[in-house]
Amino acid sequence: MSANLEAKKAVVEEIKDKINASESVILAHYDRLTVKEVTDLRNRFRAIDCEYKVYKNTLVRKAFDELGVTDFDNDLNGATAFIFCPDETSGCSTLAKAVKDDPALADKIIAKSAYVSGAYVDAEGVKKLAAIPSREVLIAKMLGCLQAPIANLAFVLSAIAKSKE
Question: For residue 88, which of 120, 47, 129 has the smallest C-alpha distance?
Answer without folding.
Answer: 129
